[in-house]
Each structure stands twice: as C-alpha cells, then as structure tokens.
C-alpha cells in the first residue's frame, strides 16, 4: 500500500472515531474512577471513567470536548484498554507516547488496534498534547487505583 493510501486510510480511521466515538458516555453508580483533565493550550477537555477490578480495566467511558485528534484518541484508547490488565494498559500508553513523539518502539505483543492511525500526529508537535490527553488521564486514573 502506498504512503498516500495509508495516510488516507489513517485519516478515515481518525474521522470515524471522531464522528462515531466508541465508549462515549458515563457510568451510573459509584463503582468507577473519574478523571478530569484539560489541555489549556487548545481547550480540549476529557472526562474519563474507568472500572478497574483486580488489576484489570474492566470498562472505560469518556466524554469531553475537543478537536478530532483529541476525541478520536480517547475513543481509540478506551477500546484499546478495555479488558486489559493495568500493566498492559500502561504499556500501551508508553507505546502510544513514544509513537506520537516519532520514536521507534517495538509493539512486542501489544494489541495496538486503531491507535496506529494517530502516528502522523508526530509531524505536528502542537497536536501531540491533543492526542495524549486521554492517555495521560488513564495513567493518572490507574495510578490513583494503585494507591
């Protein structure tokens, strides 16, 4: 597949997640963690909820406002971490952070799903914070769970 075709495919994946976000919404009850973060530079805001049981991310939902990069990244992230042990979710976050900064990193045995579509963001340093907002919220949430 040519670079242009791959770039077009990635843009389509990003726009699909933006227009049809996965796991958007809120949990009822109080059996979840809630993390609120924002990017004051561009106004992106995320409201992330995680259900973590026995060291596994059982479920994840988000709501928020922001650009297509920020919201599609949140959608992809919630899909990628659901059902995963916290350690694997954190490895995915590390992989994503390195990828988005243009660093090479082996996927090892990680199931990266659609997040590969965001690799082109590395060419736009001002957008990196948009793409990583949801991931930073997840890291903060599972970090609070460990305490």
UniProtKB/TrEMBL annotation:
GO terms for biological process: iron-sulfur cluster assembly. Coiled coil: none annotated. It comes from the Bacteria. GO terms for molecular function: iron ion binding; iron-sulfur cluster binding. Gene3D superfamilies: 3.90.1010.10. Residues 10-130 form the NIF system FeS cluster assembly NifU N-terminal domain. InterPro entries: NIF_FeS_clus_asmbl_NifU_N (IPR002871). CDD domains: IscU_like (cd06664). Belongs to the NifU family. This is Nitrogen fixation NifU-like protein. It comes from Salirhabdus euzebyi.
């Amino acid at each position: 597949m040519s670079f242009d075709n791959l770039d077009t495919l990635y843009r389509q994946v990003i726009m699909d997640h933006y227009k049809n976000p996965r796991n958007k919404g809120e949990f009822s009850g109080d059996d979840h963690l809630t993390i609120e973060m924002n990017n004051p530079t561009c106004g992106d805001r995320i409201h992330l909820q995680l259900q973590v049981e026995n060291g596994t991310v059982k479920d994840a939902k988000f709501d928020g406002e922001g650009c297509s990069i920020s919201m599609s990244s949140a959608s992809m992230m919630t899909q990628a971490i659901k059902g995963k042990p916290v350690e694997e979710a954190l490895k995915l976050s590390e992989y994503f952070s390195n990828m988005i900064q243009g660093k090479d990193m082996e996927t090892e045995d990680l199931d990266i799903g659609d997040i590969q579509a965001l690799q082109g963001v590395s060419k736009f340093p001002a957008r990196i914070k948009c793409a990583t907002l949801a991931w930073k919220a997840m890291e903060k949430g599972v970090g609070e769970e460990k305490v």
